[in-house]
Design a protein that fits this description.
Layout lengths: L6 E4 L5 H12 L4 E6 L7 H4 L4 E5 L5 H10 L5 E4 L14 H28 L3 E6 L12 H21 L4 E6 L19 H13 L4 E2 L3 H12 L1 H9 L1
Parallel strand pairs: 1-2, 1-4, 2-3, 4-5, 5-6, 6-7
Helix pairs in contact: 1-6, 3-4, 4-5, 7-8
The site of NADP nicotinamide-adenine-dinucleotide phosphate has 30 residues, from helix 1 and helix 4.
Length: 239
Amino acid sequence: MKVDGSIALVTGANRGLGACLVAELLARGASKVYVTARDPHRVASVVSQDPKVVVLPLDVTDQSSVDAAAKAAPDVTLLVNNAGVLGFGGVLDGDLDLFQRDMLTNQIGLLRVSRAFVPVLAANAPGAIVNVLTLIALAPVGGMAAYCASKAAAHSITQSLRAELRGRGIEVIGAYPGGIDTDMLAGVEAEKARPETVAERIVAGVAAGQSVIWPDDASAGAGSVYLADPTALERMLAG
Ligand SMILES: NC(=O)c1ccc[n+]([C@@H]2O[C@H](COP(=O)([O-])OP(=O)(O)OC[C@H]3O[C@@H](n4cnc5c(N)ncnc54)[C@H](OP(=O)(O)O)[C@@H]3O)[C@@H](O)[C@H]2O)c1
């Protein structure tokens, strides 16, 4: 997918990785970026004042909000499903409300936005959907059971979208980062990549035509383990 000249829309773009993806898309020549957020007032003014940026409200859990965004952005060629939440807790003792919230945002939200934008992307083809997943969609770590399950479901949705959209001029790309140094992992002791680096590698992977992107050193290493033997990754992360 050619990033130069593309018209992108990024969900959850007011902070964290989403904000870095916006900066990287603009640096790589996107001609317009829809910067979307639950609360558009939280988009930095230096970003919203960029003439190539259009700020839109978008809550991925709210169908009317998603429909309004699809109507307001009829020229999108590159959809980046980045919005996400992480509920901490184990598979046996984690709060079930967090399981539900993570599913509604990370799986159903991604699906809801993708469905709303497929007609837009098809009308403007060629185009692409980039889903920001995570390495731990492929094998879980302890203490994040709700998040891992929701991202595993989003990984499956990504594969279904790829199969259904094949031949319709819409690439479907999954990005599988390891830990990233954003608010999401604040207070968690872990190896964390810089969000700027992850954004750079995701956008480079899109431009290079990759359908699976390992955008940091940790995920690239663990990704090789997974591709050789998925049960080896499961043992590695569970340990
Ligand atoms: N951080 C990591 O270690 C890591 C690793 C792998 C993958 N990822 C994935 O990377 C993506 C970005 O995460 P991040 O690290 O940048 O986290 P973050 O700093 O917590 O940012 C999350 C973003 O998602 C938005 N969001 C949450 N719920 C939303 C909703 N219902 N509708 C629209 N936007 C919503 C947030 O908006 P508000 O400001 O309104 O809350 C925020 O902009 C997520 O999909 C995450 O799962 C993160």
